[in-house]
Specification:
13% of the residues lie in helices and 46% in strands. It is mainly β. The relative contact order is 0.08.
Length: 450
């Protein structure tokens, strides 16, 4: 009897069955198919836009021009740019539409070539443009291929300020008054810029325009203007007036007739409350003084006398009218003669002990000491009673070196002798004192904070 073999039917894999079932469901799902179609269409559109996009020409506006001066030929010749230093051009590019639509000025580099700038003046610099990144486009044109740039060396020059007052029709000051010399808050300014233009400057004017005549001394803020040897406008030159604006004080003066006098300094105590017998010729003078001082000024001082200039007997001095700085002599007087009568005094010679010579004020940058030595033959003037009571120990020298022209080593300075303990005695003349000076040690620079 034949054995019958039944062929077993192979069962499908469970995972494959589930996947097939899922695909079937997705295919039958309308929402999925719609989403799939959209994604596929978008992918095809991107591919067409990139690969099949048309090439277009666009213009990128206001692309900045780079002028690199570091290590350039003009920089090595000490030439700088003046005037306009920022330039912009329009750049035309050819690119696929999707690239062109995203381009900005930052995607393009435009540089000016300075290789041939070898002298001062306005130079035409050739422009070169290139892509500044990896975007795929071609530069086809520039709105201009050259720019004009002004090169020159830098220069500074100092100029004194000169006043210019534009007065109204009725005059700069009220009736019976006159203008004094204007006084500036600073006497000079620094003019800087390209050397060619600075060299053409001949001066600096401080210009003020008055709306009405001045009746009193007034401080104004002028406009600073450059004077040149031509009508050329200097647009690249600047005026540096420091940390504050320049002011101009305009004195308004009135002419009056006042008695003349002389001013004394370093007077012995006994003369402070007693009049010194002197005469001034002429005894009065016509002078212009500030209008606000008319009621307070009672005399015009023609000069200053130090008591050390006075000897016993008659002392005669001459002062020039032009040396008076506080007021202006308006009549024909050119000089004044002063006589000081010290005929009631006598004189004697004394010695300043070396221990009475000291330095009371050192000069910055120097350390000085007195070379010990007494000062002999010092003429002292005074009344007979004062002179009889004097001794050498009453004479002193106190050196103030702040205004001396010092140098390292030994040198001689002139000094006044002081008489102490006497009210009407003084030393006549100046006397030499030997000093030794050395350059002062500078403090070491402080270490930077860690």
């Amino acid at each position: 009897m034949k054995k019958m073999h039944l062929k077993r039917k192979t069962e499908p894999d469970a995972g494959q069955a589930r996947a097939k079932k899922t695909r079937g469901r997705l295919i039958d799902n309308n929402k999925f198919m719609m989403l799939f179609s959209l994604l596929a269409a978008f992918g095809i559109w991107i591919w067409v836009a990139i690969e099949k996009s048309p090439v277009v020409d666009v213009t990128i506006t206001s692309v900045p021009v780079q002028i690199d001066m570091e290590n350039s030929v003009p920089a090595q010749l000490n030439l700088q740019m003046f005037g306009q230093t920022e330039y912009y051009v329009d750049v035309t590019v050819s690119a696929k539409r999707f690239v062109a639509s995203s381009l900005t000025p930052a995607d393009i580099s435009v540089t000016a070539q300075t290789n041939f700038v070898d002298s001062a003046g306005t130079k035409s610099l050739q422009l070169r443009a290139a892509a500044a990144n990896s975007k795929d486009f071609e530069i086809t044109g520039l709105s201009q291929n050259y720019i004009d740039v002004y090169f020159d060396t830098y220069k500074e020059a100092e100029f004194a300020i000169e006043p210019k007052i534009n007065a109204p029709q009725e005059g700069a000051v009220i009736a019976d008054c006159m203008l004094g010399d204007p006084v500036f808050s600073r006497s000079s300014v620094i003019v800087s810029g390209p050397a060619t233009e600075v060299n053409s400057v001949t001066g600096v004017l401080a210009v003020v325009t008055l709306d009405a005549p001045l009746s009193a001394t007034t401080t104004l803020q002028p406009q600073l203007q450059l004077q040149t040897d031509s009508s050329e406008t200097l647009s690249n030159v600047t005026i540096d007036s420091g940390d504050s604006d320049v002011t101009m004080t305009v004195p308004v003066l009135k002419s009056v007739v006042l008695p003349t006098t002389v001013t004394f300094r370093n007077m012995p105590a006994g003369y402070l409350n007693a009049s010194v017998p002197f005469t001034v010729s002429p005894s009065s003078v016509e002078a212009a003084i500030p209008v606000e001082q008319v009621d307070s000024v009672t005399a015009i001082s023609v000069g200053t006398l130090d008591f050390s200039e006075l000897d016993s007997g008659y002392n005669r001095f001459v002062f020039e009218a032009s040396d008076i700085t506080d007021y202006i002599v308006t009549d024909k007087t050119t000089r004044f003669r002063v006589t000081v009568d010290m005929s009631g005094t006598t004189s004697a010679t004394f010695t300043v002990p070396e221990g009475n010579i000291s330095i009371t004020a050192q000069q910055d940058g120097f350390a000085s000491t007195v070379i010990p030595a007494a000062i002999r033959n010092v003429r002292v003037i005074g009344t007979a009673e004062e002179i009889a009571a004097l001794t050498n120990d009453m004479l002193y020298v106190e050196l103030d070196l702040t205004q001396e022209q010092l140098q390292a080593g030994e040198q001689t300075v002139q000094a006044h002798v002081i008489v102490r303990g006497s009210t009407k005695a003084w030393a006549n003349g100046t006397y030499a004192v030997r000093i030794q000076s050395t350059a002062a040690q500078q403090p070491p620079a402080s270490e930077p904070a860690g």
